[in-house]
Write a structure and sequence with these properties.
The structure holds two protein chains of two kinds. By secondary structure, chain A is of the alpha/beta class. Chain A is 39% helix and 26% strand. Classes of the chains: A alpha/beta, B mainly alpha.
């Protein structure tokens, strides 16, 4: 067994008085794909937002690629440059073209020469099949195209880990497939991924492990086969019966 | 079988109604026109109140007759939809038309027909209208203040140079495009300062020294507005960011600064800057009055700009911050490339508003003895040789300020259109 690339130990988080995450223990090895599911409000989004410290945790420790997340801003920026994230609402920068969205961070954070960054961006856009839209603005694209662009934008930083926060929840059913295809493609290339999603089909196809969360706790954690064929916890069984 | 029903217009007898209505409307407007332009009252044989109200009543009836929905006549439909939707709207429309007609002859005669412009003494003004001679004689003072006449070319030259330098952006090639922001934000103000210091102020290169107390008129308005606009914007931006900062020192400093400057009237700030401020300075330290005024106005307006920009920052969805952070951008990179471009675009109307207010606040610098255009008016109107022409002076200043402000507002509107992107 290799060293885990993400190691979360006894992590607790509160929003004011309300405890969102309770004693989370999780380790993710390189190249593994983890799907996190659970009812809304169970803390799954908060969990992955803690991994690149968009949310601060109050207790316990999170170590990403050998760097502990704490008040040290330099460390956090370094970790964030290595961890790509895709959001539910795409969050593309509306004032920049698709290409500029993709090249902004490589140029200014990684100090990549503009030419190289553009070449890389066009490659990534080609992977998600929107290279012909590169001069348009986000507002001119469909939701599915925007989300694929968001994936390309995150990949342009050449991250070691990708986090997906309900990437298909804000999309029309027709567009879900194109985004999932892009994600499956990415998984096949061996990216380490943590995906919060309700798409159980996707989970079955690519996940190595599925985590079920409820009320801020990890209720069940099992390999994909085990999770769907033989769920142990009652809460998981109920959830699966409703969603499948 | 179609009976003509005068009170209820309909489509069947469309043209009958349109022609009758238009004729009545024309009669009512023509009546007002005659009485205000040629002083002919056609209805004078009626008792007073009726004669006054008659055009309104006739006009209203005319408008009522032509109020036909979906008549199919393009202009009639347009008219009905916009200014003739109901009797009340029709009445307001008529009253406004009447007011404009009635106001035209007196204002025309004051501005043009009864006005004088010839000669260069007060005695040349014999008409009952405006005395533009006054403006003509005092024009140099209104433009340049007490600046010596034979040196005024220095002001002209430096202003022409500054305007020319401002247009550099249009001619810059692709390669230089990225330096434009740097040029406008830092280099251009420095050039402007150097030009004004060496050319207008003089004192070196064989140019005669002209103290700032002698500067004045419209050129001073421009100088003060220009520097205040340039300084208050970056300061305001930093204050807006500071107020949203997580660091308590910076945050409370910004809050305190903004609330202090927003809480005091500009006139006291100016007074303090010229009277109180020098008392706190060491004996041999000298800072020009004009510089102190510019600093004071800049800080004052910066507080307002800060709050406007903060509004824009708050309007941005949190996802934009998340996305920028998740790409590894630090605080400054995030703000410079992602947050500020969007926030500033949102607040262009608000910024333009503040800037217009700033330009119109500049006359207040008279309290420290600096005479820009309105201040020079105040001087000129108390000149014993030219008493009694305050009206012309203020109308003149109003027109000039209006032109400046309208140009700024048009420019801001263009900027808005230019940076409009779909969300």
């Amino acid at each position: 067994m290799s060293d885990p690339i993400i190691k979360i130990e006894n992590m607790n988080k509160w929003f004011g008085d309300f405890q969102v995450l309770k004693d989370i223990n999780l380790s993710v090895e390189k190249n593994k794909k983890i799907v996190v599911c659970g009812p809304s409000g169970s803390g799954k989004s908060t969990l992955i937002r803690c991994v690149n410290r968009l949310e601060e945790h109050q207790k316990g420790s999170i170590i990403v690629d050998g760097t502990e997340l704490n008040e040290n801003t330099k460390n956090i920026e370094q970790v964030r440059a290595e961890v790509g994230m895709v959001f539910q609402q795409f969050n593309l920068f509306p004032h920049l073209s698709i290409l500029d969205n993709c090249t902004l961070a490589p140029i200014w954070v990684k100090k990549m020469p503009k030419k190289d960054a553009e070449e890389l961006a066009m490659n990534q856009l080609k992977q998600v099949q929107i290279d012909d839209q590169s001069n348009k603005f986000p507002g001119q694209l469909s939701g599915g195209q925007q989300q694929r662009c968001a994936i390309a934008r995150a990949l342009c930083m050449q991250p070691k880990i990708m986090l997906f926060d309900e990437p298909t929840s804000a999309l029309d059913p027709e567009m879900i497939k194109e985004v999932l295809d892009a994600m499956v493609n990415l998984a096949k290339q061996g990216m380490t991924m943590i995906v919060v999603t309700h798409e159980m089909g996707f989970a079955k196809e690519v996940a190595d492990e599925v985590i079920f969360m409820d009320e801020g706790m990890i209720v069940e954690k099992a390999s994909t086969k085990e999770f769907f064929a033989n769920p142990k916890n009652d809460r998981t069984k109920l959830f699966l019966s409703q969603i499948l | 079988m179609n009976k003509l029903n005068f009170l209820k217009p309909d489509k069947n007898n469309l043209y009958v109604y349109v022609y009758t209505g238009s004729a009545l409307l024309f009669i009512s407007i023509f009546d007002v026109f005659l009485s205000s332009f040629f002083n002919i009252n056609v209805t004078s044989y009626f008792p007073g109140p009726v004669s006054l109200l008659l055009p309104l009543i006739i006009g209203l009836f005319g408008l009522h007759l032509i109020r036909i929905e979906f008549s199919g006549l393009k202009y009639l439909d347009l008219l009905n939809k916009n200014i003739n939707t109901s009797n009340f709207n029709g009445a307001l429309t008529l009253l406004i038309i009447f007011a404009i007609i009635m106001a035209t002859p007196p204002s025309l005669s004051w501005f043009i027909f009864d006005a004088n412009i010839a000669g260069d003494t007060k005695e040349a003004c014999t008409g009952s209208g405006a005395c533009w001679t006054y403006i003509k004689v005092w024009l140099r003072r209104f433009m340049y203040g007490m600046y010596p006449n034979e040196l005024q070319w220095r002001i002209n030259v430096s202003f022409i140079l500054l305007i020319a330098l401002a247009f550099v952006g249009y001619f810059a090639g692709q390669k230089l495009k990225k330096f434009l922001t740097l040029y406008y934000v830092i280099i251009y103000p420095i050039i402007a300062y150097i030009l004004i210091y060496y050319l207008i102020s003089g004192g070196s290169f064989g140019l005669e020294w002209v103290e700032t107390g002698a500067w004045g008129g419209l050129s001073l308005t421009f100088i003060v507005s220009f520097f205040c606009l340039i300084f208050c914007f970056p300061i305001g931006m930093l204050l807006a960011l500071g107020r949203r900062s997580n660091l308590p020192t910076i945050k409370y400093f910004s809050v305190g600064f903004i609330e202090f400057w927003r809480g005091v009237p500009l006139i006291t700030v100016l007074f303090m800057s010229s009277v109180m401020f020098p008392m706190f300075l060491p004996e041999d330290f000298f800072m020009d009055k004009l510089v102190r005024v510019i600093i004071a106005i800049s800080l004052f307006e910066a507080a307002y700009v800060a709050e406007v920009i903060r509004g824009g920052l708050q309007a941005l969805p949190r996802g934009q911050y998340d996305a920028a952070k998740s790409l590894g951008m630090g605080y400054w990179k995030m703000h410079i490339f992602v947050i500020l471009p969007q926030a500033l675009k949102l607040v262009i109307p608000g910024i333009a508003n503040t800037f217009l207010a700033l330009v119109k606040d500049t006359p207040l610098i008279f309290v420290v003895g600096l005479m820009e255009i309105a201040g020079m008016l105040g001087l000129a109107k108390t000149n014993p040789k030219w008493l009694g022409f305050a009206m012309e002076g203020y109308v003149f200043a109003a027109i000039i300020f209006w032109i400046i402000c309208y140009a700024m507002s048009k420019y801001s509107y263009n900027l808005e259109l230019k940076y409009k992107t779909e969300r």
